[in-house]
């Protein structure tokens, strides 16, 4: 007992809890170690590295250096437990905790980058599509964005050994998902683009988080609070300032079904319903596999309409295609659809639908930035103000969840 008492006087003895403010001392008075002394590096469930030293003592006192990656001036916490002549010490350097905090910050930044990536790809895909649409036709581009991208997603999911949908309910949910989120959304979008400006159409489509917030509140009891609701409204205002062009209306010739704004509104509602449906679909099928199949199934009717509509690509304009046009189509299909939709709907099954959908406000911002860089489109002072308003709106939508 005398030997163990001298050891405990220099270190400290506890069965489970280290003292929180103790300073690390490089030399701790412990009995001399036998050749069986070993040090084991390990990690706890909190991802902190620890060094466990397990030793067998002899009959004399001496000093033992506790291993640590920190300097002698660093603070540290450690436990020493003795049983007979065996001593075991566990050291947790503060420097290791700091490294783990940095790793957690990097992981959080990576998660945000993944969350934002679909909106980046959608925005840049708009720029890539701009010069291809007149040469290929709207319905063909819509179908090309879906079918090849869907096949690519299905192939990727199969390579990861994800299960194919099985059963009547699984395929029925995918079919309905495809009709709403793929066929209707892309079809309404194509009709709207023929009748309205891209700026106003983008504003209407990117207002769909309002519908998602209402549907998520009704179906999943999600709530964003007053600040979040105000942020959604402010986001729509920001988009109006960012991209709304000068419009003129001829009331005498106005027709609802001839209005591009009406078709864009229907497209926005289709996307909102599709965003909510993905949770239901993922109950019966793998989300990545379901996303791929819904794109393939939803793109087939659009391809048929493109042929029946005699889109330019089927009437000889294929000869006018350049390598840049081909690359633009591939980019819109692979990045603008396969990767972006896969990440988007996978994230929708893991987090808040309202938070995810609110980030669609970033799509027109990316489109405007890269439109300026690659197409020479410029910002007006009003557009710059709109961009600032949009960023503030995104913060407001996520404010409640950040506080929690």
TrEMBL record:
Domain (EamA): residue spans on this chain: 115-242, 259-398
Pfam families membership: EamA
Membrane topology: Multi-pass membrane protein
UniProt KW keywords: Membrane, Transmembrane, Transmembrane helix
Identification of the protein by name: EamA domain-containing protein
Annotated compartments: Membrane
Family under the similarity heading: Belongs to the drug/metabolite transporter (DMT) superfamily. Plant drug/metabolite exporter (P-DME) (TC 2.A.7.4) family.
Membrane spanning residue stretches: 136-158, 170-189, 210-242, 262-281, 288-308, 328-347, 359-376, 382-399
One term under GO cellular component: chloroplast
Xref: InterPro entries: AA-Vitamin_Transporters, EamA_dom, EmrE-like
Keyword Iron part of the UniProt annotation: no
Record keyword Transmembrane present: yes
């Amino acid at each position: 007992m005398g030997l163990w008492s001298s050891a405990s006087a220099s270190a400290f003895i506890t069965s489970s809890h280290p003292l929180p403010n103790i300073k690390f001392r490089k030399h701790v008075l412990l009995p001399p170690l036998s050749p069986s002394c070993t040090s084991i590096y390990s990690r706890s469930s909190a991802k902190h590295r620890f060094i466990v030293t397990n030793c067998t003592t002899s009959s004399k006192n001496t000093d033992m250096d506790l291993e640590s990656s920190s300097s002698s001036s660093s603070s540290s916490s450690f436990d020493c437990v003795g049983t007979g002549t065996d001593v075991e010490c566990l050291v947790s350097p503060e420097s290791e905790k700091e490294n783990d905090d940095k790793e957690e910050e990097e992981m959080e930044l990576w998660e945000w980058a993944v969350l934002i990536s679909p909106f980046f790809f959608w925005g840049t895909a708009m720029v890539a599509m701009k010069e291809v649409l007149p040469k290929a036709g709207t319905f063909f581009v819509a179908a090309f964005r879906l079918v090849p991208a869907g096949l690519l997603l299905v192939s990727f999911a199969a390579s990861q050994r994800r299960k194919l949908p099985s059963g009547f309910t699984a395929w029925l949910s995918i079919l309905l998902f495809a009709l709403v989120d793929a066929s209707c959304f892309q079809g309404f979008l194509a009709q709207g683009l023929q009748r309205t400006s891209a700026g106003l159409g983008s504003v209407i489509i990117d207002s769909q988080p309002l519908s998602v917030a209402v549907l998520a509140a009704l179906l999943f009891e999600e709530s964003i609070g007053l600040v979040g609701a105000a942020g959604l409204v402010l986001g729509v205002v920001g988009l109006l300032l960012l991209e709304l062009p000068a419009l003129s209306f001829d009331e005498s010739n106005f027709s609802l079904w001839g209005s591009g704004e009406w078709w864009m509104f229907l497209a926005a509602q289709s996307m909102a319903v599709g965003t909510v449906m993905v949770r239901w679909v993922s109950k019966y099928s793998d989300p990545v596999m379901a996303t791929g199949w819904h794109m393939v199934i939803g793109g087939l009717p659009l391809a048929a309409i493109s042929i029946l509509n005699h889109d330019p690509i089927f009437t000889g304009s294929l000869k006018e295609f350049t390598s840049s046009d081909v690359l633009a189509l591939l980019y819109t299909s692979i990045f603008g659809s396969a990767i972006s939709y896969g990440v988007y709907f996978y994230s929708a099954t893991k987090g808040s639908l309202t938070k995810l959908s609110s980030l669609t406000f970033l799509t027109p911002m990316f489109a405007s930035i890269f439109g300026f860089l690659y197409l020479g489109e410029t910002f007006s002072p009003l557009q710059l103000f709109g961009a600032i308003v949009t960023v503030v709106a995104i913060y407001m939508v996520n404010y409640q969840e950040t506080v929690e």
